[in-house]
Amino acid sequence: RRRFREDLIKQLKVWREQGDRLIVCMDANENIYKKSIGKALTESAGLNMNEIVGKFTGKKIGATYFRGQTLIDGIWATSDLIVTGAWLMPAGFGVGDHRLFVIDIASS
Question: In percent, how much of the chain has pLDDT > 90?
């Protein structure tokens, strides 16, 4: 996990330095607000990405696995992407055992 996180962050920084806008959707298998991958994506000295469902709704999201008690899935984006809608559907709405995320991002 540590190696994956380090390699992912390193590559995302390369793309960001090249001017790319970024969206990361992930089942992190750990609390996205308190544990390492969520912190690495959002820290202001690094990628400074936003967890977009929470930012759009103004609320931290709840459990995302249907038998879980913590939020382990998330979508992060760089601030140069304009999120026009973000929803987290109830458990059982989609085809899997995680809650379904729906986001709408302006194409300009």
Answer: 67
Residue 53 backbone dihedrals phi, psi, to 5 degrees: -70, -45
As a whole number of angstroms, the distance between CA 23 and CA 77 comes to 4
Identity of residue 98: H
Cβ 89 vs Cβ 78: under 8 Å? no
User: What confidence score (pLDDT) does residue 67 get?
Assistant: 85
In the structure, what pLDDT confidence band is assigned to residue 107 with cuts at 50, 70 and 90? confident
Distance CA 74, CA 24 (A): 8
Kindly report the pTM of this predicted structure: 0.90
CB atoms within 10 A of CB 63: 15
CA 29 – CA 22 distance, rounded (Å): 21
